[in-house]
From TrEMBL:
Gene Ontology cellular component annotations, sorted alphabetically: cytosol
Phylogenetic lineage: Bacteria, Bacillati, Actinomycetota, Actinomycetes, Streptosporangiales
Enzyme Commission number, as recorded: 2.1.1.-
Protein name: Ribosomal RNA small subunit methyltransferase G
Known role: Specifically methylates the N7 position of a guanine in 16S rRNA.
Gene3D superfamilies: Vaccinia Virus protein VP39 (3.40.50.150)
Taxonomic source organism: Actinomadura coerulea
Gene: rsmG
Coiled-coil regions listed: none
Top class in the EC scheme: transferase
Length: 225
């Protein structure tokens, strides 16, 4: 538990409540495999929490395909400065996520029931995260239109990270991404460290927003002609 204390700090009691909810309700309701209950901290909570080191202060984040809240709920616990939308199409899962938000008292989280590709016009966030949602080639097509220019996709990937990055090259080129990078976070805290693919979005007109209406500032009125 030493590492968990180091990673979660003062938020450890909230992380423990989440772990208990996952181990009981998450397993009973089929959101997490029964075998995962015994290895929740190492493979899920700590593995996801260390991603926070790659996210800037006060960032607006969308977690694509949150499932039972990984990594989105964990990031919300460890980083209350972030504003996080948990994007998840399945009702059973959004119900679980809303229960998590209430149980854990997370004020910085919103749950949105939708597929990423159906809500491109609604988001222009700093960071999109995703774990175990789709191969990078498909994930990039869903995630890049949700980012502001210069925003970042952080995809948690396993051993095939480099291969997926190579396979996604034509799509990334078409979207005019600024840069890509493979990085490892959490070395010494989780074994193996979490592998991230970071993809930095290019200019607005090449991330799939050509058709979108100009964004109005919050609170501004529509001008009457
Ligand atoms: C294998 S689960 C992974 C859940 C979680 N990220 C994790 O690591 O435990 C994949 C999740 O992606 C969601 N998903 C699938 N297609 C999606 C899409 N087009 N947009 C957003 N979420 C999607 C599924 O409903 C599911 O909850």
């Amino acid at each position: 538990m030493g590492t968990a204390r180091e990673v979660f700090g003062d938020a450890l009691p909230i992380a423990e409540r989440y772990a208990a909810f996952l181990a009981k309700d998450g397993v009973e309701r089929g959101l997490i495999g029964p075998r995962e209950a015994d290895r929740l901290w190492e493979r899920h909570l700590i593995n996801c929490a260390v991603v926070s080191s790659a996210i800037p202060q006060d960032a607006q984040v969308v977690d694509i395909g949150s499932g039972a809240g990984l990594p989105g709920v964990v990031l919300a616990i460890v980083r209350p400065d972030l504003r996080i939308t948990l994007l998840e199409p399945l009702l059973r899962r959004t119900t679980f996520l809303n229960e998590c938000v209430e149980l854990l008292g997370l004020r910085n989280v919103e749950v949105r029931r939708a597929r990423a590709e159906d809500v491109m016009e609604e988001f222009a966030v700093d960071v999109a995260t995703a774990r175990a949602v789709a191969p990078l080639e498909r994930l990039a097509r869903w995630a890049l239109p949700l980012l502001r220019p210069g925003g970042e996709l952080l995809a948690l990937k396993g051993e095939r990270a480099a291969a997926e990055l190579e396979e996604a090259e034509p799509v990334l080129k078409r979207f005019g991404v600024r840069s890509t990078e493979l990085l490892q976070v959490g070395r010494g805290m989780v074994d193996p460290p979490t592998t991230l693919v970071r993809v930095v979005a290019g200019r607005e007109e090449v991330v799939g927003r050509r058709q979108r209406a100009p964004r109005r500032a919050k609170g501004s009125r529509k001008r009457s002609s």
